[in-house]
Amino acid sequence: MSKNIRKTLINAKAATIVHRNASWIAVLALSAPAWSADPVPSWHPAGDNAGYVCGGISAEGMAALQKQKGDSNAEFLFTEGPERAWVSGVSVTIRGNGLQQPLQFTSDGPSCLLRLPTGEYTVQASYKDMPRSQRVKVGGASSQTVFNWPAK
After folding, report:
1. Distance between CA 65 and CA 111 in Å, rounded?
2. Is the domain of 25 the same as that of 96?
3. Which among 33, 47, 40 is positioned nearest to 105, based on CA atoms?
4. What is the pLDDT of residue 4?
5. Residue 44: enclosing H or E segment and its boundaries?
6. So what's the pLDDT on residue 11?
7. CATH of residue 121
8. What is the extent of the structural domain holding 72?
């Protein structure tokens, strides 16, 4: 086999390998949002005068969420165990005199920021089929309410 033919075959194989890898790289690049953690969370409206946003699965996600804290007047933090490890997937129901109907959602992360009308609310939160309930007063400065579950 001549040098030129061998060089051509080697270049063709290299081009095929690069092409195959480029395809995989393109697939990974296009799917990056699906496996990257904590996109910037967006607010979910709940009636005319209420809303919530949850997130903060990673430290970076928590930092992104906390940048929106100025738009809220209440915050919930969901934790587990004595180490207060962050948890998500908490079912939340909020009832109170400032809402026409209960506000219900499942948290996308350990922290939820809320915009609620001034008033008193009962917050029911459930994680791993273990309910917790707290009274929350909204008005004035924003406050954080922590819901902690025992570690299983």
Report:
1. 8
2. no
3. 47
4. 60
5. strand 44-45
6. 59
7. 2.60.40.10
8. 44-149
- In this structure, the answer to whether residues 53 and 114 fall within a common structural domain is yes
Claim to verify: residue 106 and residue 32 sit in the same structural domain: no
pTM of the model: 0.73
**pLDDT beneath 50, residues of the chain:** 15, 17-19, 21-36
Both 69 and 129 in one domain: the answer is: yes
Q: How far apart are CA 18 and CA 12, in angstroms?
A: 10
CA distances from 51 to 33, 99, 137 (A): 25, 11, 16
The count of domains in the chain is 2
Please tell me the predicted confidence (pLDDT) of residue 41: 80
Question: What pLDDT shows up at residue 37?
Answer: 53
User: Quick one: pLDDT at residue 13?
Assistant: 58
Rounded-to-integer distance, Cα 79 and Cα 92, Å: 14
pLDDT of residue 144: 94
9-37 burial, b if ≥16 CB within 10 A, otherwise e?
Answer: eeeeeeeeeeeeeeeeeeeeeeeeeeeee
Q: What residue has token string 């890898």?
A: 21
Shared-domain flag, residues 77 and 139: yes
131-136: Cβ within 8 A, 24+ apart: 136/74
